[in-house]
Amino acid sequence: MKKISIKNTPQISGIDALYYFAQSGGGYDKYYEDIIEQIEDKKAEFSALNYAYNDNDIIITKNDIDIKYSGMGRDGFLWFNHEFFRVGFKDSEKSVNIHNIRVQLNAIGIYTLGIESLVKYINTQFLKDSLLSTNYFPITRIDVNMFIQHNFNYLKKEMILSKKKNHSANIAERSTGYELETYYVGKKPFLLRVYNKLKELEGASEIKRELMFNYFGVNGLDTQKPIFNVEFEFHREFLKEYGIDTLEDAISRSKSLFELGCDLVKVLDISTLTEAQINSTNRKRADILPIWEYISKSYNNDEFMQITTPMDKIEKISYRYSLEDARKPIKRQISRLLLHDNSPTLLYFYELLQSAQEEFALRDSCKRLQSENQVEHKSEDTSKFKTFKDDLKAYSDDGLINFEERLSQNMRGVMPNDAQYDELLHTYNEVHNELIRRNLVKIPF
Known about the structure:
Layout: E1 11-22, H1 28-48, E2 59-62, E3 65-72, E4 78-81, E5 85-89, E6 101-105, H2 107-113, H3 115-126, E7 139-148, E8 160-162, E9 171-176, E10 179-187, E11 190-196, H4 197-201, H5 206-218, E12 228-235, H6 236-241, H7 247-252, H8 254-264, E13 265-267, H9 275-278, H10 290-298, H11 302-305, H12 323-339, H13 346-373, H14 388-393, H15 397-411, H16 421-437
Antiparallel strand pairs: 1-6, 1-7, 2-3, 3-4, 4-5, 5-6, 7-12, 8-13, 9-10, 10-11, 11-12
Helix pairs in contact: 2-3, 2-5, 8-10, 13-15, 15-16
């Protein structure tokens, strides 16, 4: 490859991922307790409706911003997903030597709002009232990258020259057929990935694909031609060796970090070497591959860092489970049916959809009836959560009678063989028993 052929190769430099700790303040315990209460309230609500749920069915709200629960990680943090970021919280009394809040920015958030705006949105809007006023945000990981209009399918182990001693044993690749998808060099706390970005986007959400294709087009990359991502992943252990401690340190020195990565791991032009030289220490004498030399000198994320969105232009962004979110789990269930020689028909899916809609409407109706007829009260029960029986005790006499009458009307349209009949009957019996307890109905014996 001649140098003249790569001199004007289209590329975009930036930061592809950013993880940090947020230092919690005096209001954190109350902030965390509210999170726990919201999770448990959602679980109790699902249980009252006899609804089988997963962790990611639980959506809570903090400072008018919705986040979706994804469960407790092995690190002891409760993790939540937002369209633009991922955030973890832990009990302040556990693992006291670790910060209570972890934040991970994702690509959709970074390329939509810009890094500075997204960080400000999280720290001043979402996490407000939980942080110290010192605004100390220790960096835990940064990925500096360059999207480049180049096909790296030819990469192989003999071309990699690393100054890091452990890298020679940690070089791997993932391919499909004859097409390279990802090339890995090293391991935490410092590693390089070179991967086919367009191939990766094939498995991404429709929103991310559209966002990235637009980003490439605006910046002069042709999505009809190969686009690879050259990405260096730096973790806190490595960053601290170079005096990089905070979010601000990492962002301001991102260009230096990328150049450091290119110096620590080089890609050689071995086309002029013999087979014997390639497999010997003489390999180090090979020239740097022209495209790698170009990459190492071309990183400039000034325009990338100028992508910002003023806070007053950012609406309160709420999570909503979408049809796109549902696509993958539905496909998995269909695949499972096919593996067991069951081929679902369009009629099967239509009946399933109709049944689910009727079931949801019925449960929602019961919930609404309960809400409309319940009077405001303060329970003397010291337990944290109340059962459906406990809730019924808070009804006024008139409200309870009205609830029973409307349940009776709803049951008239449901046949005994319907899946919802047992649930309605159970609810009706609980209401009727409470009426009997209050002597509002006569027992016929």
